[in-house]
Design brief:
The protein has about 160 residues and is α+β, with helices and mostly antiparallel strands. Helices cover about 30% and strands about 30% of the residues. The strands form 2 sheets. It has a 5-stranded antiparallel beta sheet. A 3-stranded antiparallel beta sheet has the order 6-8-7, covered by helices on one side. The longest helix is centred in the last third of the chain and has 15 residues. The protein is globular and about 40 Å long. The two termini are about 20 Å apart. The model has no long low-confidence stretch (mean pLDDT about 95).
Length: about 160
């Protein structure tokens, strides 16, 4: 849910190479990310790919539930979208859609930045609704940043990070 009384930043700079850019309704470049069955399986637990309407519906839903950002990397003199992330106190789904940028520590930098945002907003905790048990990369990422399993879910576990 969007944070009441808090303006979502247009840009959150992570470092010289990375930034988060507020969702602006333009997402055609992201369709190829969600047409990859491996990516969708890690995100949704199914191997059914997205079409443009399903992607539009997903982004609308995520934008209504929190602060939706595109993860951008500075490449050849300009920022290029490589993934997406949604920030809310109750969930932080993240996808590095461009496979060339996976396993490079980008997710850790993004989530660390959003943890700092949660602290600035004076949150007592942050939660992750569900990480599938087979998504070992996400489990490792969130646990390295201090998240701990909270509850068993249908396909994995929810996680929590105490900030206070």
């Amino acid at each position: 849910m969007p944070i009441l009384g808090v303006q979502q930043p247009e840009i959150i700079h992570i470092n010289r190479q990375l930034r988060l850019r507020k969702y602006d309704g333009v997402f055609d470049f992201a369709l190829e990310w969600y047409q990859d069955t491996q990516t969708v399986y890690l995100v949704d637990g199914v191997q059914k790919t997205y079409d443009e309407q399903l992607l539009a519906d997903m982004y609308e839903y995520l934008n209504d539930k929190g602060e939706l950002y595109f993860i951008e990397s500075f490449i050849d003199g300009m920022y290029k979208p490589i993934g997406d992330v949604t920030f809310s106190q109750t969930d932080m789904p993240i996808v590095i859609g461009d496979k060339n940028f996976r396993s490079k520590g980008i997710g850790k930098k993004v989530i660390s930045t959003l943890i700092d945002r949660g602290k600035k907003l004076d949150y007592a905790y942050l939660c992750i609704r569900e990480i599938f048990d087979y998504n070992t990369a996400s489990i490792k990422l969130f646990e390295e940043l201090g998240f701990t399993p909270l509850d068993k879910t249908a396909n994995g576990h929810s996680y929590i990070l105490q900030l206070k």
